[in-house]
Amino acid sequence: MSSMNQVSCTLLSQDESSTSLSSVMGSPSFVPSTKLSSNILETFLSLLFDPNITSECDKQRWFAQPIHTRHSSLGGKPHNIEERHYFWGLVQTHGGPCGVITAIQAEMIKSLKLYEDFDKVVSPQEAEMALCDGLGRILARCAVAPPVDSDRMSTPACNLSCVKIVTSDFGSDLSMSNFLSFGERLNSVTVYSKLSTKPDTIDEEIEFLAEATSEFLFKSGTVKVFGCPCGVILFLLSIVMTRGVETIQADMDDPSNAHLTAQFGHSSQELINLFLTGQASSNTFDNVVILGGGSLKCYGIQNQPDIGYLSQLEALRYCSVGSFYKSPKFPIWIIGSSSHFTVLFGSMENLKECESEILLEKCRRAFKSIENAEENGFIPVDKLNDTLKVLNLDVGDAVNTLAAALEMSGAGIVLWSDFWRATSRLLTGASLESVLNTNDIQKSSNNATPLMLTQFGESNNNTMESDEAMARRLAAEWGMDQFGKSDEELARELQAQFESNHSASCSNDEVQIVESQKPTSIAVNEDNHQTTLAETNDTAKDMEIVSSSAFKMYHYNCLRGGELSTFNVTKLTMEEAVGMSVPLVPTNFDVKNSSHCINDLESVVRTKYTSCRFDWGERKPPSLH
User: Where are the beta strands (DSSP E) in 347-435?
Assistant: First the structure.
């Protein structure tokens, strides 16, 4: 028996657990270990795997995956500075459990505060402590987080929060073949917070319980058990026993047919949400979406998490990730692709948002709270007052007048673009009268061709541009100097460049240039009259970005021994978008460089930073797969 297994046997055998653990912890914050029945293990496996789609090979990969760093599995030292992740980077040796590994990795990055000092030297002991902290925090969240809907629970949730940690007294001998038959050799230790009274907030309760759990894992050496084969399975079993099967199923939209793994053995969205939020909800949008006239509730993310989540599926417009996941408490995100999960992180500068971004997201969330609003890009006119109430915007009896002004040509609907133009001005101090007057002027104006926005912010303008008009527009977008050339010369030059760019290797689906995606800043004078920069400035230079924010970001892939990539992102900060047309759903294309083919990671990052540039230096962008 290895020394690691000897440690786990000594500390976690049922006969000696009471004495040895008390001496290790020095505090009665745990209950001695108990054996697990085969019924518990069978229930766990039925929740984890879908028998209709999960193959035996998929299951074997999960049972063979440990939770360990490259150093703990190989020993030695990093060969160069490019392997600074050698001590703290977790390694995935088998396909399938990447969602579990990356969620734990994200917690380790947070614990080590690599978002503050990426170049810090991390020792093996510090990495192990960070692993204990990450595991403890995930378990504590699952223990403390309330059910997404308590009405779904047949029994009330327990008020006493505790963590159950499952370990094995035969280490590497555990496998899929003997998991059920050797159940009597699995032990469950219950860990409690050392507090005598319940904390005032959920966050405080999670913090204290996480501290007690991580202390137990580190001082008792229990964390080493998770470094053995079946480590992922043992930790998942700890999660399920801590939260409870009934509570986990109640979190899901379809409790009778949902599992913690999906097709090909991938981690399901429920499992990712369980690790990041403590709740196994089935969606990534904010709060709750009500469908079928109230008969169906789909639960998403209920509050701002520590770790965020971004999805390639949103870049492909198959799902919607809400602002809670996009703007977490720490600049760390799980990246979900079609076949893998990786980690993205940066500095706290990444989370800074200007006032217009905060206001825009607030209005988007209120608009999407109405059933089918995101899919359609509009809300029923009779729901306008409900949406305004979400924004705490009270216009009194004038709501009918506002509704009549915003209604789309008697169709009984209010488009997102009209809703944003009006509410953004009301929320920034404009009077209702000025908003109504401006809206009437915009609707009755015949001087400009109306620009209709779909829910994706794309232009449906059917008016063809002349070469000269196109030249002026593209010159403003590309920042080109148009002085010293005639309109005809500039038109011919830009038309040729435009055609060559669009015949390049990128397809039209990957690269688009949409005029409506370049918001124009506005100014409001004392008479509440809006004036665009286009009216007050004559040169293309005045249309350019007024400021920019550049920062480094880091991408870590646990596969292939662990791959760490560094790149620069420049977030382009437009002037205030109040009162202007902006898309309801962020789009992903390079407005400033139409010949640039956007890779998978760039498209995902752009779901967070809609307008940004990437600098990979001499390196090839990393794979999300």
Answer: 378-380, 413-415
Q: Which residues, 6 or more positions from 117, have their beta carbon under 8 angstroms from its beta carbon?
A: none
SS3 sequence of 325-349? HHCCCCCEEEEECCCCEEEEEECHH
pLDDT tens readout for residues 186-208? 888 999 987 777 788 999 999 99
Q: Is the pLDDT of residue 297 over 60?
A: yes
* Range among 260-264, 329-333, 402-406, 454-458 rated most confident: 329-333
Nearest Cα neighbor of 142 from 128, 153, 157 is 157
Residue 449: Cβ within 10 Å count:
8
**Beta-bridge partners for 310:** 335
348 contacts 116 by C-beta, under 8 angstroms = yes
* Cα 34 to Cα 290: distance, rounded to the nearest angstrom: 42
162 beta partners: 192
CA separation, residue 413 to residues 135, 144, 289, 416 (Å): 49, 42, 19, 10
Q: Note whether 222 and 11 are within 8 A (CB).
A: yes
Rounded to 5 degrees, what are φ and ψ at 589?
-160, 160
Q: 394-398: which pairs have CB atoms within 8 A and are 24 or more residues apart? A: 395/426, 395/432, 398/432
Closest Cα partner for 592 from 543, 534, 625?
Answer: 543
Spell out the residues 6+ positions from residue 602 whose beta carbon is closer than 8 angstroms to its own. Answer: 588, 614, 621
163 strand-pairing partners: 191
Look up residue 586 and give its two tokens. 């962020």
Distance CA 427, CA 390 (A): 12
Ranges of beta strands (E only) in 409-529 are 413-415, 522-524
- Give the Cα separation of 233 and 235 in Å (integer): 5
SS (H, E, C) 522-571: EEECCCCCEEEHHHHCCCHHHHCCCEEEEEEEEEEECCCCCEEEEEEEEE
Length of the chain: 625
pLDDT (0 to 100) of residue 162: 92
Going 400 to 404 to 406 to 407, the CA torsion angle's sign is positive
Top pLDDT among 596 and 354 is at: 354
- Phi and psi torsions of 409, nearest 5°: 50, 45
State yes or no: pLDDT of 460 exceeds 90: no
- Give the pair of three-digit tokens for residue 462: 């059917």
The runs of H, that is alpha helices, within 288-328 are: 312-315, 323-326
- 194 alpha carbon, distance to own chain's centre: 32
pLDDT of residue 140: 97
Helices (H), 64-97: 70-74
pLDDT digit string, tens, across residues 270-293:
999 999 999 999 999 999 888 877
Q: Is the pLDDT of residue 99 over 90?
A: yes
What's the pLDDT at 86?
79
Distance (Å) of CA 258 to CA 61, 225, 271, 314, 551: 20, 29, 10, 21, 40
User: Contacts from 520-528 at CB under 8 Å and sequence distance 24+?
Assistant: 520/580, 521/546, 521/574, 521/575, 521/576, 521/577, 521/580, 522/576, 522/578, 522/579, 522/580, 524/425, 524/430, 524/579, 528/430, 528/431, 528/434, 528/438
pLDDT, tens digit, 9 for 90 and up, residues 461-480: 444 555 555 555 555 555 54
Using alpha carbons, list the distances in angstroms from residue 230 to 35, 68, 375: 18, 11, 42
